[in-house]
TrEMBL record:
Family designation: Belongs to the cation transport ATPase (P-type) (TC 3.A.3) family. Type IB subfamily.
EC number: 7.2.2.21
PANTHER family the UniProt entry points to: CADMIUM/ZINC-TRANSPORTING ATPASE HMA2-RELATED, CADMIUM_ZINC-TRANSPORTING ATPASE HMA4-RELATED
Record's protein name: Cd(2+)-exporting ATPase
Domain of life of the source: Bacteria
Subcellular location: Cell membrane
Gene encoding the protein: cadA
Alphabetized CDD domains for the sequence: HMA
Catalytic activity entry: Cd(2+)(in) + ATP + H2O = Cd(2+)(out) + ADP + phosphate + H(+)
Membrane topology, record value: Multi-pass membrane protein
MF-aspect GO terms: ATP binding; ATP hydrolysis activity; metal ion binding; P-type cadmium transporter activity
Keywords: ATP-binding, Cadmium, Cell membrane, Ion transport, Membrane, Metal-binding, Nucleotide-binding, Phosphoprotein, Translocase, Transmembrane, Transmembrane helix, Transport
Biological source species: Anoxybacillus gonensis
């Protein structure tokens, strides 16, 4: 299948009709045309000239067709000319006489000729959509001599069609702003020389030069230089991030002031920016259950309206003696009221706006169905390590039985030879207190328990409880150790040859934003927050208490996490948030899987929503946007149906006119389009 960008699509119904015509071509089976994204996918063997001809019947064209690109959609000019002719006919009707009908016909043809041609084809094929309804209405209006009103119907329908196209194009343009973040070239450093190459040709291991104001071409790591980098396009973070040697950077982010040498770690096609663009564009193609329902509803709704119209045209004259002219007029108005345009538009613009706004915030939603479900979530389960906590141990407690600085010096000296996460936490604690330490002598590592070594000619030990005999631990030491254990700490003992010198309590550091995020989630209506972790129960309970999580399930293997998710799903719509490979099964089973953007590839690939930041800060806002999208869609549907219902009720006393009919249809379409686009609008905070 080959993909093309199509411009000039006027409405969702029209796009679906064009899709069906393309599918009827040889090799056209399986072709898809998305109104939301303007993407056409067809078999490479299909006759493109015939495809172009089909698109042209609706004023649409392929964006790669240079000749077509120079053409502008003439609808606005045609409608403008129609309005001018209509006004002239009204002003000079008494001077022109019966010939004024010719002007009304010309004005109607300019605004409605495409609709009329498509509608006639639909009548022959027994295909009922809004073009069919409008064509029958126009023929009927002219047939009973309502020239003025027929012209107004055509003009207002043309305006409606134009505004509908503008609404979706505005939503698409907002998404296209993301494409402007894509860098085109990179300066590769080779043998001390720089040369410009295409971003697509970059290979893993290449070193690129990024000057101030330039975009980093692909994901990589800084190997030389220091600067602040604007990552807003990727993570949604407004503040620049300071980068120096050894730190990772995203492709598409902007280098602010310094010169950076960046070693590429991912080809552009695998970079974060490329994935963002791919996922968001791909997400536009998916249909939510609500959208599918609307399309099925519209399929049966249109013939139903035609039956109602026929009923209004025939039953009153036959049963109650209503003049045929009046009944035909009312029936034609019913046809116009019944246009499903606003109903079909109630969903796609809102979904596209919601996904685009989330993408700008650095939150990727992999489809409209996931956005809709995210808005209905009431229970959120979190993995602990790397999600609520940083996944990096740090020293929380120091209990010293000698001078504390001396204890830190001895402990850091012994641990400086180890790469164990607990050892690094103790060394980091010594650095924070500006305590110098030295390399120990005669190091002996005891697997699973600790390290022994000489410092200043004296032997010391550091490790866990297994390294010490019970008699080494006095009652006070045991009491201190038990207190730390009850608080969920991992304990490290430090001792010389005779005595224990002190204890370190170590725990995984809670992320700064976790408590605020959990509180905010509860505030916006998340009823239950759950922690699922493989860690010890005491440690998990301590973290849960600190951040405000309501329920804790500890010492779980990945399979048990999946079982807990399934249990939670029996009672509620559940989201699972995680970052590791062991979280992938739970992410896949939850109603919505949410992965941290700097987590493992397996978690990111499995998840339905990806937070590109290395924290949970954007999660409440992402849920709030999803809920707003759902509210907007429901409200759009209610308004569209209510306006039509009110207009139809006017047929009972005979008050429904063609003017009221088209204004109710046009008003509903404009209303749902504007309300959906407002999702993109964000209040500026000072």
């Amino acid at each position: 299948m080959k993909e093309y960008q199509v411009k000039g699509l006027t409405c969702a119904n029209c796009a679906r009709a064009l899709e069906e015509q393309i599918q009827s071509l040889p090799y056209g089976e399986g072709a898809t045309l998305s109104y939301s994204s303007g993407k056409l996918r067809v078999n490479e063997r299909v006759d493109l000239e015939k495809v172009r001809a089909i698109l042209a019947t609706d004023g649409a064209y392929m964006a790669d067709d240079e000749q077509s690109q120079r053409k502008r959609n003439p609808l606005l000019y045609l409608v403008g000319t129609s309005i001018f002719l209509f006004v002239m006919a009204l002003l000079f009707e008494r001077f022109i006489g019966n010939e004024v009908v010719i002007i009304y016909i010309i004005a109607t043809a300019l605004s409605g000729y495409k609709t009329f041609i498509k509608g006639l084809k639909n009548v022959v094929r027994f295909r009922f959509n809004m073009d069919t309804l409008m064509t029958i209405a126009l023929i009927g209006a002219f047939g009973i001599g309502e020239w003025k009103e027929a012209t107004v119907v055509a003009i207002l329908f043309g305006i409606n069609e134009y505004l509908e196209g503008i609404g979706m194009e505005r939503a698409r343009r907002s998404l296209d702003m993301l494409l402007k973040q894509v860098p085109k070239e990179a300066l590769v450093i080779y043998n001390g020389q720089t040369r410009a190459v295409s971003v697509d040709s970059l290979q893993v291991g290449d070193v690129v030069l990024v000057r101030p104001g330039e975009k980093i071409p692909s994901d990589g790591v800084v190997i030389q230089g220091k600067s602040s980098v604007n990552e807003a396009a990727i993570t949604g973070e407004s503040m620049p991030i300071e980068k120096e040697t050894g730190m990772s950077v995203y492709g598409g982010s902007v280098n602010n002031e310094g010169v950076l040498h960046v070693q590429i770690t991912k080809q552009y096609k695998d970079s974060s920016l490329s994935k963002i663009l791919h996922l968001v564009q791909e997400a536009q193609e998916t249909k939510t259950p609500l959208e599918l329902f609307i399309h099925r509803f519209a399929k049966y709704y249109t013939p139903f309206i035609m039956v109602i119209s026929l009923f209004v045209m025939t039953i009153p004259p036959l049963a109650f003696g209503v003049p045929w002219h009046d009944a035909l007029y009312q029936g034609l108005a019913v046809l116009i009221v019944g246009c499903p345009c606003a109903l079909i538009l109630s969903s796609p613009i809102a979904l596209l706006a919601g996904m685009t706004r989330n993408a700008k915030k650095g939150v990727l939603v992999k489809g409209g169905v996931h956005l809709e479900t995210l808005g209905r979530v009431r229970t959120i389960a979190f993995d602990k390590t790397g999600t609520i906590t940083k996944g990096k141990p740090h020293v929380t407690d120091v209990i010293a039985y000698i001078d504390e600085n001396e204890l830190l010096r001895i402990a850091a000296s012994l641990e400086s030879v180890s790469s164990h996460p607990l050892a690094r936490a103790i060394v980091q604690k010594a650095k924070q207190h500006d305590i110098s330490y030295e390399q120990p002598e005669q190091i002996e590592t005891r697997t699973g328990s600790g390290i022994e070594g000489k410092i200043d000619g004296k032997r010391y030990r550091i490790g866990n409880e297994r390294m010490f005999d019970q008699q080494d631990l006095s009652e006070k030491i045991q009491k201190d150790a038990e207190k730390l254990k009850s608080e969920g700490r991992t304990i490290v003992f430090v001792a010389d040859e005779q005595h224990v010198l002190g204890l370190f309590g170590i725990a995984d550091e809670v992320r700064e934003e976790s408590q605020a995020v959990i509180k905010q989630l509860h505030r916006i209506g998340i009823r239950r927050t759950v922690m699922l972790t493989g860690d010890h129960e005491k440690t998990a309970e301590q973290v849960a208490k600190q951040v405000g999580v309501t329920d804790v399930f500890a010492q779980l293997v990945p399979e048990q996490k999946v079982e807990k998710i399934k249990q939670l799903m029996k009672d509620d719509i559940v989201a699972m948030v995680g970052d590791g490979m062991n979280d992938a099964p739970a992410l896949a089973h939850a109603h919505v899987g949410i992965a941290m953007g700097k987590g493992t590839d397996s978690a990111i690939e499995t998840a339905d929503v990806v937070l590109m930041q290395d924290h949970l800060g954007k999660l409440p806002e992402a849920i709030a946007i999803a809920r707003r999208v759902n509210r907007t869609i429901r409200f759009n549907i209610a308004v569209a149906l209510a306006l039509k219902a009110m207009a139809l009720l006017l047929t009972i006393p005979g008050w429904l006119t063609l003017w009221i009919a088209i204004l109710s249809d046009m008003g509903a379409t404009i209303f749902v389009s504007v309300l959906s686009l407002l999702i993109l609008w964000e209040k500026r905070t000072r």
